[in-house]
Amino acid sequence: MHFATLASGSSGNAILVGEGERGFLVDCGISAKRLVGNLAILNVPPEQIEGIIVTHEHIDHIKGIGVLARKLKIPILATAGLWEEIRQAAGPLKDEQKIIIPAEVSLAGLDIKLFPTSHDSRESYGLKITRQTAGHKRLSLGIATDSGTVTQAMHEHLRGCDALVVEANHDEEKLWQGRYPWPLKRRIAGIYGHLENGQIAEGLLSWIGENTQRVVLAHLSEENNTPEAALTAVLRALRGSRIAKENPELRLRVAPRHTPHELIYLREE
């Protein structure tokens, strides 16, 4: 199994997840042209993309879904509630491109389970993506962005994943001392807003296991966070913890805002 963020932040989000020469997208909040260009940077042919799973209806997650679905002749997969919200933004599609999904679905040879996050949208989901290996090990990738608090469902589905893509949206001090208007600050810091560096650091202490290979910090605010601040908060929490002793090979990085990072391949051993 492999993955990469293709864009990350309030200006647009998209994640590639794949297995072999098959793959799918989690959201497409950037233009179809830019999305295809970012796939090309990774040498991933767009023909390998078999569908787009939508996590919630905010524009930074759905901006390009309709154009890309029509261009690549692929389906958009979303819950019934989300389809009511995204239908207009998606534009004209063939019936077979409009797929209503339950909490569990398979795509591109991978099993996907949706779980709720806490965000100010009609419905908002994280994903746990798994694949059974030849050695009877179950590889897993957990994805959770756009949540104002660490939910019980996040604890349940992210704990022990082989890799994690999780939100480190803002630094608390930068947010409250920044130039955003007060109502927006309250929205971001609220339980239906976005996770702060310290919140995700605390969550990671519970989720990272001996098998966890990679952690990608995503959806950073351009105004209220920096990659250095996010990394420092998480590393400070991990330093001296059981994780540092049990998993010295764990690798941590921040998702770039406009470009993809390298394809990350999960080891099966």
From TrEMBL:
<dbReference type="InterPro" id="IPR052533">
    <property type="entry name" value="WalJ/YycJ-like"/>
</dbReference>
<feature type="domain" description="Metallo-beta-lactamase">
    <location>
        <begin position="11"/>
        <end position="179"/>
    </location>
</feature>
<protein>
    <submittedName>
        <fullName>Beta-lactamase superfamily domain protein</fullName>
    </submittedName>
</protein>
<dbReference type="InterPro" id="IPR001279">
    <property type="entry name" value="Metallo-B-lactamas"/>
</dbReference>
<dbReference type="InterPro" id="IPR036866">
    <property type="entry name" value="RibonucZ/Hydroxyglut_hydro"/>
</dbReference>
<dbReference type="Pfam" id="PF12706">
    <property type="entry name" value="Lactamase_B_2"/>
</dbReference>
